[in-house]
Amino acid sequence: MEAYLHGVSTRKVDDLVKALGADTGISKSEVSRICADLDREVATFRGRDLGVTGYPYVYLDATYCKARVNHRVISQAMVVAIGVAADGRREVLGFDVGDSENEPFWTEFLRSLKARGLDGVKLVISDAHTGLKKAISTVFQGAAWQRCRVHFMRNVLSIVPRASQDMVAAVIRTIFAQPDAKHIQAQFDEVTRMLERTHPKVAKMLHDARADILAFCGFPPKHWRQIWSTNPIERLNKEIKRRTDVVGVFPNPAALLRLAGAVLVEQHDEWEAGARRYLSEDSMRQLEAFNTALTNPDAAALTGVIPIPELIAA
Q: Which residues partner with 123 through β-bridges?
């Protein structure tokens, strides 16, 4: 089971068993039977109570793996949610497998998290997939949404000639290199004006996405690098792909959920056992003051935060 979980193919498991003295080896079906014990562990984890603490930050993303469904090999969406708890620790909140990243699937997944007690969400970080965005607005009403700046940059560069991509990317990055929210807003205006002359389509994309890619400005500056992209969950997706690529095509979606789920449980345990928090407790205590400033202009004057109405109007 451990060998399978760590990305060893069933053929290599067979070789390992023979090397240990069992001349008959072990069949693929026997490997699958043994590894089915993982199902109980994964199911227990997926059903655990999330109401013990609040999760101000929630990251959502998906990766695709192949599985057999009705005798056909099709891509299956492995969706994952991770959160940063009120004490600054990261946790894997949940995961599921579906046919696609459509709105009904995401909505059902997010509602299942809330049904398990997920609460206190202040900011959701994801890409701009239409179905996901609608599901977030439906399930997490009152929470802000941060569009992943990395995904946004990829979308921008897809419409820029190759010869100009490095320049455009460097100019846009200057927005995120500013020390505070006011300078970010000013630099955003400057960059947009500059690109209107040379790359008007890019300037329009920036203008249309302003509130979404700058949502992080309403939160403590110490958190910005961790909350303006989905990088934390991207690393998890790479580990899932590394383990699942060994299998290639899963016999069914349940087998995919078993292996990917076990990988995620393992990562969750590592985060829980680690001494280092993703965000410091001190910075998490600052979060409440920034949340107040988001909608209160008087409080915003004390913290330097740009209230949401002004941020959108800008």
A: 57, 144
Nearest-CA neighbor of 176 among 132, 198, 146?
A: 146
Three-class SS state of 64: strand
**What secondary structure letter does DSSP report for 306?**
P
Structure tokens at 259: 């292996």
CA distance 159 to 251: 39
Sign of the Cα torsion 125, 129, 133, 135 reads negative
Pairing of strands 123-126, 90-98: unpaired
Q: Could you identify the residue written with the tokens 């056992």?
A: 273
What domains appear along the chain, each with residue ranges and CATH number? 1-35 (no CATH), 51-148+230-279 (3.30.420.10), 149-228+280-314 (no CATH)
Q: What is the pLDDT of residue 126?
A: 95
Q: Are 99 and 86 in contact (CB under 8 A)?
A: no
Q: What is the pTM of this model?
A: 0.85
Q: What is the DSSP letter of 161?
A: -
Task: Summarize the confidence of residues 170-194 as an average pLDDT.
Answer: 95
What integer is the mean pLDDT of 155-167? 95
Q: Is the separation of the CB atoms in 246 and 8 below 8 Å?
A: yes
- Distance in angstroms (rounded) separating the CA atoms of residues 285 and 143: 18
Q: Which residues pair with 95 in a beta bridge?
A: 80
**Alpha-carbon distances of 301 from 182, 273, 294, 298, rounded to whole Å:** 12, 40, 11, 5
Which residue from 150, 117, 90, 148 is spatially nearest to 271, judged by alpha carbons?
90
Give backbone dihedrals phi and psi of 88, rounded to 5 degrees, phi first: 95, 0
